[in-house]
Amino acid sequence: MSGNKQDVEELMQDLRGQIAAEGHTEKELEEARKLAYLDGSDKGPEFFYPELAAKARYLDTHYENPILFAPEGNPVKVALQKLILKTVGFTYFRAFRHQNAFNKEVAGTVEELTAFIRMQEKENAALREQVERLEAQLKGKAE
Fold first, then answer.
1. Residue 2: per-residue pLDDT
2. Are 31 and 54 within one domain?
């Protein structure tokens, strides 16, 4: 184990030397750290279950792409839209059906993952309580 720690320290020293040799400023390094996280923060993304559940519910109800849009506007524009829909629509209908099926599967998967996370949180809470009870019993026996 100490060998690994030494290897890590050697790597860090090498990296620090490379950074110093290339002349990077602290500001540049801070920006590079922020780029490592998707949300642009300097501490990384945090998990927030209610937000995930809300997004899963939204996906579950809004996964379909509308295939047809009601033509509106001046009569010439409406006639042109209907003509385009009739001539090219059959190609797009198939693509939209496939995309809607895919979106439905993704929404279902996200919903299942959300339920799994909730189940894991409950299980973790139960295990935490059990560990606390066992620790309390050990302290009682030690005294």
1. 44
2. no
- 136's tokens: 């309390």
DSSP codes joined into one string, the chain: -HHHHHHHHHHHHHHHHHHHHHT--HHHHHHHHHHTSTTS-SS-----HHHHHHHHHHHHHS-PPPS-----SSHHHHHHHHHHHHHHHHHHHHHHHHHHHHHHHHHHHHHHHHHHHHHHHHHHHHHHHHHHHHHHHHHHHH-
pLDDT one-digit tens code per residue, 88-131: 777 777 777 888 888 888 888 888 888 888 888 889 889 999 99
pTM of the model: 0.45
Q: How confident is the model at residue 47 (pLDDT cuts 50, 70, 90)?
A: low
Residue 2 sits in the same domain as residue 30: yes
Asked whether residue 116 falls in the same domain as residue 59, the answer is: yes
Q: Is 59 found in the same domain as 21?
A: no
Domain co-membership, 14 together with 39: yes
